[in-house]
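FAQ: What does the model actually see?

It sees only this:
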Amino acid sequence: MRLASILAATLIFTLSAADARAGTSVLFIGNSFTYGMGSAVRFYRADTVTDLNNEDIGGMPALFESFTEQAGLDYEVFVETRGGSGLDFHLANKLGVIGRRGWDVAVMHGYSTLDADNPRNPAKLIATSKQMADFLRMRNPQVALYLLATWSRADQTYTAGGAWAGEPIEAMARDVAAAYEAAAGSAEIDAVIPVGEAWNRAMEAGVADPNPYDGIEAGKLNLWTYDHYHASAYGYYLEALVVFGTLTGLDPRSLGENECSAYELGFARQEVKALQQAAYDELESAGVVEPSPLELPRPVNPERCIDAR
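And it is asked to produce this:
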């Protein structure tokens, strides 16, 4: 009996020590706007995150993981996504997966038009955000919860029949952000991550072209992919920068223009710098980050980026 007690105590100590060494766990719950549909980001560095659905997704969460590693932070990143879904799908079908453990941090978002069946109506988002928040707090009462407010869809703005047809491109992101703020208030969410408004800022600053249907102006980026709905690699990169700044409190510009993931995705340094500036400007205006000295430029080379993994 005494030996059994010693073995049990040793096992408990070992498990506790392992938990203590583990990094901060972050779960991303979302859809194709999280997993990177339409871009090289979809399967990017899939081996650096854990896809709870075993679909080999890297996505925006893998970009976040890359940023945190380069910043010297320790995060364990998990992904639970399903294309074309809102939080109602995850509540109905994925609680067994989501509830496997208590998470330190959870980032989640709903369908891009707020409600697939009733666009622009925030009621479902508000209700399901609270239900998911309540469930996550059952597993860990101290979990930090974030809602991710997504971007304007060009196909919903510039084409006839779109839910925001005829309105300025910025309008959808602003309406979506307002809905997420309402949901955050109802669910007592820690913060809303202003991705859509960072996209607006990039367009207003001349970094990104606001209308992919009339061609992309020289020197500007297209944040959308071919369907004018999902993001391009640039759009997902900007999304990940805003998530990084919100969750860590670090200035996204501190990653530097030689940031590894941008190098691996084939971005030019001036593009990286412009996207990091747009993310910083949005986060600074929201009071999320403060300016920090930029790191000295580091040469980009495959060896350094491999080491960052």
